[in-house]
């Protein structure tokens, strides 16, 4: 997209909210080799997955309200993957980094 003058929405774009077509304060993004977009949805305390060309995403981590349980996040701000495909999430207000095997959640 060298020289591009306009962007293309690949995730969200339907206003602020908690629906599967919305986000509330996206903070971080990682794109895998297949073009799948993973987004930290800070305000909704969740991580979302948007396959290439999808019109809506799916919640792969969190989405269970803000909190400190192992299935909850509290103001996540970053994400990364290791070579085995495990997801690491920076869970800011819980002062922790959690890892998730999302292959079993696919």
UniProtKB/TrEMBL annotation:
Keyword line: Glycoprotein, Repeat, Signal
Database matches in InterPro entries: 6-blade_b-propeller_TolB-like, NHL_repeat
Gene3D superfamilies: TolB, C-terminal domain
NHL repeat spans: 72-103
Pfam families: NHL
Record-given protein name: Uncharacterized protein
């Amino acid at each position: 997209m060298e020289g591009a003058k306009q962007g293309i929405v690949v995730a969200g774009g339907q206003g602020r909210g908690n629906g599967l077509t919305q986000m509330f304060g996206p903070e971080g993004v990682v794109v895998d080799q297949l073009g799948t977009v993973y987004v930290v949805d800070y305000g909704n305390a969740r991580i979302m997955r948007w396959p290439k060309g999808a019109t809506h995403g799916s919640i792969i981590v969190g989405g269970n309200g803000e909190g400190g349980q192992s299935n909850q996040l509290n103001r996540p701000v970053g994400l990364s993957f290791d070579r085995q495909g495990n997801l690491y999430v920076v869970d800011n207000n819980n002062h922790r980094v959690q890892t998730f095997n999302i292959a079993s959640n696919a």
